[in-house]
Design goal:
148 residues; 4 helices; 0% strand; binds protoporphyrin IX containing FE
């Protein structure tokens, strides 16, 4: 059966791949922060003490975890908007990913403001994995239609 969609999957593939690559990097940096006990290096929200300026060594990974999240969320929202308007096959998972990334950012804020409450740290990690799964499914749904 031929699947109908109003535009080429190339844009959806590009956007979801960028989202996936950024997400992988955000998670890598997040686990590094956690395993090197730097989770309380920035106790402020939403910015580290250096604000928009270059971070000191102490705030380096926390600062870039947050900066990369902004870019990642941008790609996830752009993928959802594009799929919603023009690319039906990836619509469901792309919209779920957009909702999950919003929840994940709230968990990130709570991890910081509660000073690493264990239940929130666990929720932050598991929601990150759910987000990765939704973004990967979005990418695969677009990629498998690349020759159509
Ligand atoms: C796309 C959004 C995000 C993703 C995918 C993400 C992912 C992760 C992951 C996988 C970890 C490692 C967790 C662990 O090993 O237990 C982590 C740690 C952390 N994240 Fe995020 N994060 C996101 C957004 C944020 C935001 C917005 C903040 C807020 C500032 C934040 C603050 C933290 C902190 C403080 C840690 C270290 C927790 C600890 O020391 O145990 N994250 N993040």
């Amino acid at each position: 059966m031929e699947i109908q969609h109003s535009s080429s999957p190339k844009v959806a593939i590009g956007l979801s791949f960028c989202a996936l690559a950024m997400l992988y990097s955000v998670m890598l940096v997040g686990v590094y922060i956690s395993s090197s006990n730097q989770g309380l290096s920035c106790t402020e929200w939403p910015l580290c003490p250096n604000g928009f300026g270059l971070p000191s060594e102490k705030h380096f990974f926390e600062h870039y975890h947050r900066v990369m999240v902004v870019i990642t969320a941008g790609f996830i929202f752009a993928t959802a908007a594009y799929s919603f308007k023009k690319f039906k096959p990836a619509r469901k998972t792309a919209i779920i990913a957009a909702i999950v990334v919003s929840v994940q950012i709230i968990f990130g804020m709570l991890v910081v403001t509660t000073r690493l409450e264990p239940l929130l740290v666990a929720s932050h990690l598991s929601t990150g994995i759910l987000l990765f799964a939704m973004t990967l499914m979005t990418f695969l749904a677009s990629y498998k239609l690349r020759f159509q």
